[in-house]
Amino acid sequence: MHRRTALSVSAALLVAAPLLSACSGETRPGTAAVVGGERITTSALQAQVNDVRTAQNRSEQAATLIANTPQLERIKLGKMIQLRVLERAAEDAGLSVTTKEIEDARRAQEGDRGAAALEQMALQARVPLAPGQIDEDLRFRLLLDKLSERFGEDRIIEPLTKASEALDIEVNPRYGAWDAKQVGLGPVETPWITQRTRPEQQPAGA
């Protein structure tokens, strides 16, 4: 967890037919996306968003933090889908992450600063994290590290694209469209392969 990957995954704006549609042509209610045949419900997505908004509202910088994340639903959904892609790619490669590895990574990130400092930094990241979402993000980053080590940072897009295509991902059009080749949700870019030594902070004055 001491390298910055050279890979930059950008989201493409796709013109696609309506997804997640029932026979009547109506979008299935309560579904944000379907990944590998499993639903990501809008309630599960909204719970993640609400946790972040609650944490933001407790901050002295609440107004700035909220203003900097107007597309939080799409960003969070993109990250939720990408985690499932990482899990599938890791499974295909025979890789996994243990609870101990997550615990060790958290202790390393907290360092002398402590949990409160880490939580504040996570809230200011480009993909903001509520305190309860930090461990899942660490798992995300550890999976990405292991895949990068296995395939090389310049070729990691290949197993991720393969996993993305195998999962047959469909997204409710209200959130955009999934691009399996870019492993991203459009039309809003979902930044996800970022520095893994600590959560990325918003530029000053952003």
Structural description of this entry:
Helix content is 45%, strand content 8%. It has 206 residues and is mainly alpha-helical. The strands form two sheets. It has a three-stranded antiparallel sheet. A two-stranded antiparallel ribbon has the order 4-5. Helix 3 crosses helix 6, helix 3 (72-92) crosses helix 7 (157-166) and helix 4 packs across helix 6. The longest helix is centred in the middle third of the chain and has 21 residues, at 72-92. The model is unreliable at 1-27 and 192-206 (pLDDT under 50). Keywords: Signal. Pfam families: SurA_N_2 (PF13623). InterPro entries: Trigger_fact/SurA_dom_sf. Residues 1-22 form the signal peptide.
Residue share in helix: 40-55%
Count the beta strands: 5
Termini Cα gap = 27 Å
Strand numbers in spatial order across the main sheet: 2-1-3
Percent in strands: 5-15%
Describe the SSE topology.
Blueprint: E1 31-35, E2 38-41, H1 42-58, H2 62-67, H3 72-92, H4 99-110, H5 115-123, H6 134-151, H7 157-166, E3 170-171, E4 177-179, E5 184-186
Antiparallel strand pairs: 1-2, 1-3, 4-5
Pfam family, one: SurA_N_2
InterPro entries: Trigger_fact/SurA_dom_sf
Organism: Streptomyces yangpuensis
